Amino acid sequence: MKKLLLSFPIIMGILFLGILISENNVNSVHHSSSNSEIIQSKDSTKSKLRIYYIRHAEGGHNVKKEWGIYPESEWPAYVGDHSAFTPKGIMQQSRVSKKLMRFNFDFVATSPAWRCKNTVLPYLEESKIKAEIWPELAEIYATKLIIAPDLPEHTATDKILGAGDAITLLPEEEPYFTLRKDGLNEFKKMRFPRDHSESAKENAMAKVIIDHVLELIENRSTSHKTILLSGHGSSGAAILRMLTKNPLNHFPQITNTGVWMVEQQDDGTFKLKMFNDVPFPE
User: Fold this and answer.
1) Tens digit of pLDDT for each residue in 76-110?
2) What pTM does this model have?
């Protein structure tokens, strides 16, 4: 009996030590598994280039047609103004930062237009990210013809890229925006009939511009994998067509502050994953 009592603490010690070793092994395996999952997740994110595009908030020019039924003397000051948000646009802008903070953007570029810069300004202020002005994101007209294989080459003798007005930043904009050394001027706005009767030539000109956007994206993708572009409706549709090589027939327009996202696949192609903030069905 005395021997049994003496050996009891030894037995309990051995059992307790065994439990500790077992728990340590389990925790070690679990910790290793978690690290592996995190590393895989990070590697997966790094290997997938994602391009996000947000259209500007509703501007006064967007509602000019709606106010056409009223005498111009009754129009609010913002109607027809490209550099002013409507009350609805102000509300949309107030929600942009929360929407964009869900994503970890490591590069942001925006059209030089007031409405595009100010749409993402609250996000830039909160995230402490500085956006680069891309003149090529300015508004252009471009239909599905922009990806037609037989689209005629633009033959204008005038230079398009960098041949427009100089871009300037106001002092209050400088903490949030920067200019590219090779993007100090807007592109030259070519004149075409308002009815788009020369759409083939118009789209050929637009292709020159969007081709350069794709080149800029490719250059930035060597060091940035989650890119946000802030621009206009027509330009956003044109960039999406060029990236996906899809005419987007029967697609709705990009809504004000609506976001689309494409993800690069292993073969280099881009697949649409989100449109107007909603996951795009496979």
Assistant:
1) 999 999 999 999 999 999 999 999 999 999 999 99
2) 0.82
SS3 letters across the chain: CHHHHHHHHHHHHHHHHHHHHHHHHHHHHHHHHHHHHHHHHHHHHHHCCEEEEEECCCEHHHHCCHHHHCCHHHCCCCCCCCCCECHHHHHHHHHHHHHHCCCCCCEEEECCCHHHHHHHHHHHHHHCCCEEECHHHCCCCCCHHHHCCCCCCCCCCCCCCCCCCECCCCCCCCCCEEECCCCCECCCCCCCCCCCCCHHHHHHHHHHHHHHHHHHHHHHCCCCCEEEEEECHHHHHHHHHHHHCCCCCCCCCCCCCCEEEEEECCCCCEEEEEECCEECCC
Q: Are 202 and 192 in contact (CB under 8 A)?
A: yes
Distance between CA atoms of residues 50 and 236, nearest Å? 15
